[in-house]
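Budget justification note: compute hours in this period were largely spent on complex prediction jobs such as the one shown. Inputs:
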Amino acid sequence: MQQVDRGLVDAQLAVAPGAPGGPPPLDGAPASVAPRSQRVVLSVVRDLFRYSAAFRVGALVLLLLLVLAVLSAHAPYAADARRVVPQDRPPSPEYPLGTTTLGQDVFWLTTYAIRNSLFIATLAVIISRSIAVLLGSFSGYVGGPVDRVLGAITDSFIVIPRLPLLILISFMVRGSLNMVGLAVLIGLLDWAWPSKRYRAQVLSLREEEFTNTATFSGLGTLEVILHEHVPFLIPFLMADAVSGFLFAIGVEITLAILGLSDLGMPTIGTMIYWANYYQVLLTKRLWWIVTPLVGSVLLVVALYLLSTSLGTYLDPRTRLKNLGLRRAAA
Amino acid sequence: MSFVRSYALPRLVQWAVVIVIGATVTFTIPRLLPTDPVEQTLNRVSSTAVTDPRAVESFRNAIRDLYGLQGTPVEQYARFWSRLVHGDLGPSLGAFPTPVTQIIRDGLPWTIGLLGTTLILSWCLGVVLGTLAAYFSGKRWSHLLSGVLVTIYPVPYFILALVLVMVFAYYIPLFPLVGGASGQASLSLGYLGSILQHGFLPALSLLLGGTAFRFIIARALASGVIASDPVVYAEIAGLPKRRIVFGYVLRNSLLPQVTDLALAIGTLFEGALITEFVFSYPGIGYRLYTAILQSDFNMIMGITIFSIVGIATATLVLDLLYPLVDPRVRYR
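Corresponding output:
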């Protein structure tokens, strides 16, 4: 759980340059026309794939893990099936990653674990970033006393340590905390820092000409925010969503290892929990614990590579360089 | 006195807001959730001992009172605050009737020692290494260092700590696996040495994470400074490299790092909690873990509130010390 505010680093690298002058498309759509969100995402991804080696590596590793997650749909065993294969077998042609003391096939267990961990993280990110974007842009757009009150609340949630709160809550609902519950819990505790970043961006967008045009055309506050401002937040949102992913995966692992999440569902965290529970380190059944460890490290590093390459991309200096490359290639 | 009014006062207010919000959230959550901590505790106890329904009833009332769940929500909230102001977090159920505050006080020196040492060390290491890596960005070692730290940075603390345990306590048993020290507590060299030996791995895992985080920011900040005019002129003037790096680049990228220290405290504290579980290090985090295992609701509550107040106060202190390093705040 990082526990470390992943957002911090990425945000510091990214936010300053990203702001108004029309961040998204390189193709030169006029800044006064709010670009279509979908096109923005596509053009960002295309450019990144072309110019950033970090992005390519990250995307490939992530793709590999996604394939594993999809494979879980074709697993010969159910997600919670136990005693279906011989216990404690080391890796062999029949069981490529060995089997567990509980009689599970580590390979298929891992596919479920990756799928579930990705699901939890995705849902958590959707929840936390929705709150962050809406609250941040509303606060920044409206300004005045509302902004100050919301700002004080946001600052408080940044300072308040989240891990003890998470432990308190998941301790109280122990057993009944399924994947969706866990995702909602994580999502509700991870909006404060990004919300501050979105507020800062909307603060400058508010001063742009097209905001006035939109207001004079009779758009309401929410419409201006959603239709005019949010598209400009998307590139940063993409980098920021990755930080949310990293946080959520860290939380999931932490709570599971403490025995506070639903231990019957395979996730990266619960795999490590059961491996520890059966003392794999003392009994040298390493395949059981190394697989989720390697899987989680691959996952977070791949995501982080995506995030930093996006951060670099948002820096206008890098983009100028890429424009130069493009011209030279043409 | 405009400094007090424009700088110190808003921060004091923010500190109070953090504590009020934090305490209110901690108060509200157990009351919003469908599960009842009283029944949970009761189930755990009565499954082994009491069977008489009247005894169970009186026991239920006793626990209800203990958890501050007696009376209307408003009364409960008022009592919650009056207890909080008096520094009373109730007794621990796992180690009844030791007060929660006593247990926290026992664990605090270990956590502060671990946290303080790693906070300072990782900050210094990260800033210096990050600046050097940015200045010598073409060199092989710079690429290698960046590669390693960028890989470590996103890895969850738990995984990092677990890998360290696997490598240095099981396979290359250089360090003891559990505890904070061995032998009688005294000022003898042997005892102090055992503290260092026990603390090494937990500190290392925190240090790796913290340094990686600081390194990445420092590298980004320093590469901005390197492109600035003063540094370019210093290069042209042929000043010694050491002077350019430490006198120009490092010094000019230091300020945001100091601001950041206040924010890093919270995250490193969470890291310290996790590290303590993994290494059974006898600080607050380990006591929190024991409380989870013993279903000690009061203890978990107490540690949660304590960490909110503690982190808020630490942040406030750092914020108030900030003008000492940033003259712009002082003379505003």
